[in-house]
Design a protein that fits this description.
Two copies of one chain form a homodimer. Helix content of chain A is about 45%, strand content about 15%. Chain A has helices spanning about 15-30, 45-50, 65-70, 80-85, 100-110, 145-160, 185-195, 225-250, 255-270, 295-310, 315-325, and strands spanning about 5-10, 35-40, 55, 95, 120-125, 130-135, 170-175, 200-205, 220, 280, 285-290. In chain A, helix 4 (about 80-85) packs parallel to helix 5, helix 6 crosses helix 11 (about 315-325) and helix 8 packs antiparallel against helix 9.
Chain lengths: ~325, ~325
Amino acid sequence: MVYRIGVDTLGSESPSRLIVQGVLEFARTNSACEILCIGRTHDLAPVRSNGLAVIECEKAINQHDSLVEILRSESSSSLHVGLNLLAEREIDAFVSTGNTAALMALGRHTLPMLPGWIRPAIIKRFESKKSPFWILDLGANIARKRNLLLQFAYLGTAYAKSMHLTSKPRVAVLNIGAEAHKGPVVLRRVAVELSRQRHFDFVGFIEADLLFDGIADVVVTDGFSGNIMLKSLEGAAKITHHYIREALDKAALSNHELAESIARNVNSRLNSQSYNGASLIGLDGVVIKSHGHADNVGIEAALKLARDEVQAAIPKRLKMHFQELAGTTLT
Amino acid sequence: MVYRIGVDTLGSESPSRLIVQGVLEFARTNSACEILCIGRTHDLAPVRSNGLAVIECEKAINQHDSLVEILRSESSSSLHVGLNLLAEREIDAFVSTGNTAALMALGRHTLPMLPGWIRPAIIKRFESKKSPFWILDLGANIARKRNLLLQFAYLGTAYAKSMHLTSKPRVAVLNIGAEAHKGPVVLRRVAVELSRQRHFDFVGFIEADLLFDGIADVVVTDGFSGNIMLKSLEGAAKITHHYIREALDKAALSNHELAESIARNVNSRLNSQSYNGASLIGLDGVVIKSHGHADNVGIEAALKLARDEVQAAIPKRLKMHFQELAGTTLT
């Protein structure tokens, strides 16, 4: 079976040659995937000359456009084109490099919601010391509301199962203390409700410093806090990289391959590019949000995530697991 | 002039021998400071035998006690004792290793607020690639309210000036996007109000991935988001340390001193212990919150911060700068 993946190459803040490089690298190693690039013909000439499909599109959604401007704008932007192709089943997955809020708003406008869902959420896989885990929401919804948070617990569990988590999922809620009386009232209410269900193991509150200790498979948070957490990790990774380079420079290394290899090893684990790509789930289609500054490595990682989700039959299996877990009782 | 610093040694989750070790190391190198340890005589025997003062106290505030329990409890806990000594000017600064919520609640109960202040806030110094900067609130207040956030901007600026920032402070508000239309309505309102004042340079919204780029001297956020950010950075530092050790183990290093020194260098910069200590500001007294898991290095760092604040004449200078900036117009 051939998977067809569309990529919006216009929303990105990285040079288009890096996007092209990532796309070509992915295509070279994934012959079962057909790539369709949406963007400027001039930028995409190397893509076309390598035999990949291109849809010419000049109009990007600007990172600085407001939602009102985006929803009002004519439907010729690369984001509109990509989401429409997905809605019409011309592609199996869509990778966007642009503005999250625009993707969320236009996504909801173009694609149906899955049954029982209130709002889409952004979910991303991380690696703890022991195993993968998933965090949602990472910025699709900024309100900290009971019904959203409850649904994220079910959504996240359904997604983790769809992406091959075989054990009974351990679900935690991100808070500023582990004890049951800590944090905002809404989180404490959500915790009480989650502790009463039997579909997954609710392990209580988790603090952000313990995220990588492998305590939970699914971490639930509002999109504002989730985004602050995500960007803080990114900031920490960047400053670490800076410190490692500084240490190497101080040691005036020229031929110390070992030290270089350590720096490379640490960097490859921390580098957000290798882990680029988050999923907008809740819509009837595979939609991957790539970082606005994703380079070739990042674009390739986002394309791999799109491929894995199509392979895992998202959103079909996601819908099935979500209905098993929660039915439509939460809507 | 001799500075008298009190340390609550009971609230900590670290072994008391580490606390003792940190206290003794600080005392050895800071002969102008008199240390007063509050805790169990048995644990503090080495402190006493080194000639430092000890107040015997058996009753700790439990990390798991609720605020109601803490406020109801009799006033014999180490936290009560320390804050009372500070209120009576028997000590110039108090370092707490316990529960933040308990410190905040009992601190407000025991010490007067500085004039014009609404609520205390927790502020901490960080190092960007270029210069130090300060973030507040880190968990004293969980509500995201306009008047609190506005006051944090003035508070943070006054604190940075008191701690010797000489340039005109650049103030930013933590948000999930840099553009003026991003994030919750309350943050956008606060940004409009801050952009209209002339006491400091308001540089707009900042995303957490750019914290270490040296864009702002003071970063304003609500205590919930600030705490999530702080703990995320801590989690990232821990997993980085894990990766560096893993890389060293993989390389099967025995005599590769260079690689070890790189790991040490990076770790010393990222290690939250060396940067342990946040300040509870807004109360008429120097109150330092040390991490509950602080080891000897962490305790020593918290004591140094207490010393620096006494030296900088906090809260007197803080009060002066705050009144210059905002008067009492914000209350």
